[in-house]
Amino acid sequence: MRVLVVGGAGYIGSHMVKLLCQRGFEVTVLDNLSAGHRDAVKGGRFVLGDLGERDLLDELLRTSRFDGVLHFASHIQVGESVREPAKYYLNNVFKTQYLLDAMVAHRINHFIFSSTAAIFGEPLRTPIDEDHPKNPINPFGRGKWMVEQMLSDYEVAYGLKAVCLRYFNAAGADPDGELGERHEPETHLIPLVLQAAAGRRPNITVFGTDYDTPDGTCVRDYIHVTDLCEVHLLALQRLWDGAGGGAFNLGNGNGFSVREVIDTARAVTGREIPVVYGERRPGDPARLVADSRRARAELGWNPRYADLATIVAHAWRWEGGREG
Length: 324
Ligand code: UDP
What we know:
Blueprint: E1 2-6, H1 11-22, E2 26-31, E3 45-48, H2 54-64, E4 68-71, H3 78-83, H4 85-105, E5 110-116, H5 139-158, E6 161-167, E7 169-171, H6 189-197, E8 204-207, E9 219-220, E10 222-224, H7 225-240, E11 246-250, E12 256-257, H8 258-269, E13 275-278, E14 287-288, H9 293-299, H10 308-321
Parallel strand pairs: 1-2, 1-4, 2-3, 4-5, 5-6, 6-11, 7-10, 8-13, 9-14
Antiparallel strand pairs: 9-12
The structure holds uridine-5'-diphosphate (UDP).
Keywords: Carbohydrate metabolism, Isomerase, NAD
GO molecular function, one term: UDP-glucose 4-epimerase activity
EC number: 5.1.3.2
């Protein structure tokens, strides 16, 4: 099978490309390298390009006869999306539509979309199931929810079948130690904590200690990047088997507080991790935990690395290995 991975040089995309190549798929990566890294693409054919280059996109889809498209190329910083909504709507919404229109034009009917827990906004209940009301509170979440709705309309009108995968907190790294998280700037908790452990940052700032949670810090549901990639394959297979599109919430169903993450990182690394207690970060809900029963029941998903210590250990092998 031939698969196009848009954003295949990024954090999750690069892990996906490696998995697809290992499983014998014929992979093409399209990435503009605005955030990704060419050396993170460990297999397949690499095409340097942006979804805004509509002629290039058209030519690629016309000539390559892909059986499916996975779309990871999006901006991901909530705070930045509030300051620069135009950047987010252009890249995450409009350019996604260009991709979908090219797929429709060339009759490529199977699409896996990287969505987010941010479409739910402030949770009304927890854990969060797929039918929880969608009330995104920032342009990043709103853009992702717009695309999900667009995809429902495209399925009805054009027969394009899509699975939307709503990531909670993607974390960890390739168990082989070959790939990991390399955002610039890094904003995510686990890599920042590990960079503090490695002495590459002086400390980690905890954003808020007065949340309505057991220890006052925010609770999140961390999911190993390799487990996340496995779901994409299962979702693609489901589409190829003739099922309709759908949406799945992806997490492990266990919430860990910021303090628990730091304590786990201390145990895993054996290093001191200096902590500074700071203000809340605007837009952070107190608790985001996924109800992923639908993914387990309907896709047969069975996470291998659900344990937080394993997630942190794999991330540490990557961060620690980058030390010298
Ligand atoms: N966080 C923190 N300090 C940091 C980065 C993150 O306390 O330097 C907290 C953040 O407020 C949130 C959790 O860690 O409660 C996870 O944040 P991250 O940015 O990794 O993912 P998000 O939940 O925003 O998708």
